[in-house]
């Protein structure tokens, strides 16, 4: 599926550099932009759920945890 991506508020210097790079590679600025994005994301690996869960546990290890049964009881009592 092809889509469109519009990038606004780019610095004029960045646009000029993109156009120069595109010219060096014999492509349009749009094609160069696509290639830069493709190269930047080509080898990016999405972390697994287990890895994300481990990271969340590590980040929240020092926080006080309230057992879910207490939270559920408090929720029922507020009704």
Automatic annotation (TrEMBL):
Residues 4-41 form the Antitoxin FitA-like ribbon-helix-helix domain. One of its GO terms (biological process) is regulation of DNA-templated transcription. SUPFAM superfamilies: Ribbon-helix-helix. Transmembrane segments: none annotated. Pfam families: FitA-like_RHH (PF22513). It comes from the Bacteria. InterPro entries: Arc_rbn_hlx_hlx, FitA-like_RHH, Ribbon_hlx_hlx. This is Antitoxin FitA-like ribbon-helix-helix domain-containing protein. It comes from Jiella pacifica. The lineage of its organism: Bacteria, Pseudomonadati, Pseudomonadota, Alphaproteobacteria, Hyphomicrobiales.
């Amino acid at each position: 599926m092809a889509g469109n991506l519009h990038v606004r508020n780019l610095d004029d210097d960045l646009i000029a550099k993109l156009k120069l790079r595109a010219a060096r590679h014999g492509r349009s600025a749009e094609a160069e932009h696509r290639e830069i994005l493709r190269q930047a994301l080509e080898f990016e690996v999405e972390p697994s759920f287990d890895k994300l869960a481990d990271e969340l546990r590590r980040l929240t290890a020092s926080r006080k945890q309230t057992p879910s049964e207490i939270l559920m009881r408090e929720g029922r009592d507020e009704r």
